[in-house]
Amino acid sequence: MAVALTHRDFRVLWSGACVSTIGTWMQKVAQSWLVLTITGSAFYLGLDQFLGEVPILLFTLIGGVVADRHNRRRMLLTSQYVQMACAFVLMAIVYFDVVEIWHILALSFISGTAQAFGGPAFQSLIPDLVPRDHLPNAIALNSIQFNLARVIGPLVAGVAMAAFGAAICFGLNGLSFLFVIVALGMLRVVHVPRARTTRMVDELRGGVRYVRDEQRLVRLTSLAFVQTFLGLPLLTFLPLFAQNIFKQGVAQYSEMMAFSGAGAVVGALVVAWMGKFAHMGRALLTGQIVFGALLVAFSFSRVLWVSHILLFAAGATLIVVFSLLTSLVQLIAPNELRGRVVSIYMVAFRGGSPLGSLAAGYAASLWSAPAVLAVNGVLLMLVGGWSLARDRALRDV
Predict the structure, then answer these.
(1) Which among 223, 221, 195, 199 has a CA at the least distance from the CA of 210?
(2) pTM confidence score
(3) Domain 3-395 in CATH: superfamily?
(4) Contact 355, 229 (CB under 8 A)
(5) Fewest CB within 10 A of the end CB: N or C in the chain?
(6) pLDDT at residue 193 tops 60
């Protein structure tokens, strides 16, 4: 279940990323609650998520080409330094009580831009750290650390905010980036970029052409966009459910995030245990249908303990789908094109989240958050059911 951790470089990077991701989730909780406190608006919650993720749409394709042409470790270091600076700036303006909503939105965009270049470099570096047969396990373990942090981070954030205020969460997140920076400095693997014989724009076109001609990648990339566009507003709306549906505060929001994260850890453990297996495409489509049904059920629930159970199950199902999607893309992509293939996939995977959050936030301002989630869940079930019945290339991959 943890075979990828037997490889020293992966273990070092995994440990550093785990600590850093705890800080990231602390900031996510504190920042969402801060936005809601300042504006009281579902639209601004969606807008903040949009501006944090929209750089993925704008710059990730370029980041993928750069990851193939330049040292991936240096790209990751630069990304970490920029994100760390943004966290410390946000800590300062909140501590001195001069924060305005535009400050938060601007810092979200800058941090997202750093992620747009660091993301392809990180995803492209992982296959260099483990053998090919252990790649699905490594991806699942990355999901585990991400979602362990999604359990720990919100709980710590809730306690820290109650005791010291939101500024402490932003400061601790800034410090957490040091763990990744140290881990990157300890890696023994050396990424040697290939000789640059063509222009960057030509390499970008080559990557797009490869993905376009590989129908399995087209289908996986499209499915990733649908899943994040329709599914991730669940997390965006959790502050609204805590405050408006269950009439509670940030502690309940943190608790709901923790239930979702705990479920995701269980889902990632399942994927890590299964590793590479036949008909992974069929499993991820079934998972999408189940997640859509859980989303509908959560939107109608008004009993807190039932909502917690549904969040746990939805978190587990969502991470199974995400892990299978990412594993299949990594297994299909050739090494010399991996940065570009992963960047195209990330545009869909990460790009669906801001667009979905913005659209869902606007729709919720007209109707309600539960109604929007119910519609999204039905659409996910329809897309998954159609693909499972009609799309043999995706079903049998």
Answers:
(1) 221
(2) 0.69
(3) MFS general substrate transporter like domains (1.20.1250.20)
(4) yes
(5) N
(6) no
Q: What's the pLDDT tens digit per position in 131-145?
A: 877 877 787 788 778
Model pLDDT for residues 95-105, shown as the tens digit of each residue: 999 989 999 99
Tell me which DSSP letter residue 133 carries. Answer: G
Domain boundaries, the chain: 3-395
Q: Compute the distance between CA of residue 320 and CA of residue 312 in angstroms, rounded to an integer.
A: 13
Tens digits of residue pLDDT in 270-305: 877 776 666 777 888 899 999 999 999 999 999 889
Q: Which amino acid is at 217?
A: L
Predicted pLDDT of residue 68: 67
Q: Taking a C-beta distance cutoff of 8 angstroms, is the pair 157, 169 a contact? A: yes
Measuring CA to CA, which residue among 278, 374, 328, 293 is closest to residue 135?
Answer: 328
Contact indicator for 223, 321 with CB cutoff of 8 Å:
no
